[in-house]
Amino acid sequence: MATRGSDIASRKRAALLRAALVMGVFLLYPLLATLTPVLDGTVAGVSVAYVVGFLELMFALVVALTYAGTRS
Amino acid sequence: MTLPLAVVGVLVLATLVLTWYAAQRNKDTGDHYVAGRRIGGLGNGLALAGDQISAASFLGITGAIALMGFNGFWLAVGLPIAYVLVLLLVAEPLRNLGKFTLADVIATRFDSLGLRASIAIATVIMTVIYMTVQFIGAGLIAGALLDVNFTAAVLILGVLMTLYTVLGGMVAATYIQIFKTSLLAVMVLAVFVAVISRTGWNPIGPMLDATKQFGAGVVEPDRSDLTESVNWISLTIGLTLGIMGLPHVMLRFLTVRDARAARNSAAVAIGIFTVFFLMLPIFGYAALNEIGEKAIVAANPAGNSAGPMLAQEVGGDILYALVAGVTIATILAVLAGMAIAISGAVAHDLYTNVIKKGHVDERGQLVSGRLAGAVSAAIAIVLAFGAKDLNIANVANIAFAIAASTTMPTLLLTLYWRRFNQTGALFAMVGGLIVSLGLVLLGPDVLGKDDAIFPLAIPALVSVPAGFLLAYVGSKIGAGRVGSTGMPYDEFERRAFAPEDDTREGGRFTRRAEEPERVGAV
Prior knowledge:
By secondary structure, chain A is mainly α. Chain A contains 2 helices and 2 strands. In chain A, helix 1 packs antiparallel against helix 2 (48-71).
C-alpha cells in the first residue's frame, strides 16, 4: 500500500524536529565554551570542555546509529 | 627524505593501479559522475569520511591544539554533528531524487535554466576555492615533509589528479578515497599506540601531562577576545550547516545503490569521525609535551608540522614516512572528488542542460565532463600559485560559509517547504552568494583587522540567516507567478521521501541501480 501524504508529512516533521534538537544541543557547546566560564576547569586533570565534547560525539554517534538502525 | 619519498611513490603507484582498474568500469556519464550508482553503504561511508578527513583536519587541528590549546576542538565535534543533520534531513531524498549533480536534485522540483545555472556557478566557485586551498596545502606539505619545492609539488599533484578524474571518473575517486581512508585509519592508530606507549598506556595521558606541565589554561577554552569568540561561533555554524551544501560531499549520496545504503554510509562516516576526532586533542597535547611550542612554530608558524613531528618523535623514520605518504594520498583523493563535482556542474549542468538544452549525445557528455575536470584542475593550480601566501584555513572556511548560505537553504527548503518556489530558490542562491562573498570582501581577511567594515572573518552567523530570509522573501514575491511553483509538491514529496511505494506499484519514480554489481562495496 502506498505511503499516504500524512505519513510522509509526519516523517518529515520528525526529521526536522530531530535535526533541530541535535543542532540546538550541539550549538550550546561552542556558545557555553566561548562566551561563558561554565565549561572552564578540569576534573582529575581532564578539561570539562573536553569531557562535554566527548559526550557530544557520543550523542552524535548514538543518534546516527539509532536512526540508521530503525529505518533499515 | 628517501624513505618518505619511497612511501609516497608506492602509494601513488597504488592509486594509479586503482585508477587503471576503475577506468575499465568508467564507460558512460553515469559511471563518470556517480560511479554507476552502485556503491555500497560501507564503501560510501569510507569515501564520505575520506572526503571530510582532509590533510587540513589531521595537520591543522593537531597543530592548532598544540599551539592554541583547546579552542577549535568544537570544530572537530561539529563535523560528526553536520553528518547527523545530513543523515536526518537530506541523505535519502538526495539518493531518491538525484541524477548526476546537486542541481539535478533541485531541478526535479524547479526545472529552471536560470536556477540550474546559478547552482552550477555557485558549485564552481565553492569547489574551486576549496580545490585551490587543497593545492596550496599540498604544495606546502610536500615542501615540509618531502623537501620538494612548491611549484613542482603542485604541478605533479595536479597531473595525477587530472589522470584520476579523466580516466577513472567517480569510480576511481571512490576507490582511491576508500583506499586512503583505510590507510589513514592505520596511520592514526599507529601514531595513537606510539603516543600512549609513552604515557603508561593511558589514552588521556598527554592531556594530563600538559595540564601538569603548562597549567589548566592549555586544556580550557580561551575567551580573551570577544570578536574572536563570536567568529568561532560563526565558523562552527558555517561548518556544521555548510556540509549540507557542499556539492562534492553531497554528490556521494548520489553514488549509492539505494536509500538504505545512503543512510548506512552516513552512519559509517559518523562512526569514523567520532574515533578520529577524539584522537586529535591527544595528538595535539602529545606534540606540545614531546616537541614543545618553540620547535613546532619554528618548523611551521601555523603548527601544520606538529603531527608529522610527533610521528617522527614517537615512531621514528618509519612512522614519519607513513604520515607523509598518507597525507599526500589524502590530498590527492580529496582533489579527485572535487574535480568530479566541478566537471558535473560545468559539463552536465551548464554545457549540456543550460547551453545545449539537453541536446548532447552520450559521448559528447562524457568528453565534456572529462575536459571540464582537466580545465578546472588547471584553473585551481594557477590560482594556487597566486594565492599561496593566504591563510588557507580561513579560505577553506569561507567555502563552507558560502555553501551554508546558498545551496544549503535552497536544498533544504526545496525538500521540506511546500510554499517554496523558483523565485525563492533564485533569491537564496544569488542573494546568499552576494551576501556571503560581500561580507568576506568587507571582512578582516581582505581589508585587515583594523580597517574591516564587517568584523568577522567567517560570515556564516549573518549570511546563513540572510540566505533563509532571502528564500522566504523571494517565495512571497514569486507566489502566484505562473510556473514558479514547479512540480506539484505532493508528487515531488513522494518521489523524495517514499519512492519505494512507486516501486511496489510499478510507478515511474522507481530509481534502482540498473546493475547489481557493487562497486566499492565491502
